[in-house]
Structures are given as structure tokens and as C-alpha cells.
Specification:
Oligomer: single chain
Distance between the termini: 40 Å
CATH topology of one domain: N-terminal domain of TfIIb
Subunit structure: Part of the 50S ribosomal subunit.
Function: Binds to the 23S rRNA.
Structural class: alpha+beta
Radius of gyration: 15 Å
InterPro entries: Ribosomal_eL37/eL43 (IPR011331), Ribosomal_eL43 (IPR002674), Ribosomal_protein_eL43 (IPR050522), Ribosomal_zn-bd (IPR011332)
Shape: elongated
Strand content: 15-25%
Pfam family, one: Ribosomal_L37ae
CATH class of one domain: Mainly Beta
Helix content: 10-25%
Number of strands: 3
Family: Belongs to the eukaryotic ribosomal protein eL43 family. Putative zinc-binding subfamily.
Amino acid sequence: MAKAKKSLKGLGARYGIKLRKQYTKIHLQLKEKRTCPECGSQTFGRDAVGIWSCKKCSYKVAGTAYDIKL
């Protein structure tokens, strides 16, 4: 039995395979769990494009649009 792929809803069979693969890669990268560099909790996430913050200690940092580079 083959492994089931993670399917993302929203695009369906539209826009071509190349764009759907790029969308999937960016979406999974954006939604992955991150640890806060200050307190180490798992509540570190994106507030807006390029603004990342921790909901526990309210630490804010500027980064790239879809990922954080510290």
C-alpha cells in the first residue's frame, strides 16, 4: 500500500501541476511549527508578511514572507 500524500484543498485541478507544487511547498513551509528563539515555546508564528512573533512572550522579529531566518 502506497503512502498517502498530503492534499491541499483550495486549488483543485486548476492552474497546472507546477504552480500547485509551488503552492504546496510554500503553504507547508508557512504552516510548520516553529520554536521561539527567546523562550523556546511552540507558539511562534507569522502576524503579517515579514513580521513574526511569539504569543507567549510577545517577542517580535522581522523576517522573510514565508519563513524566518535568524
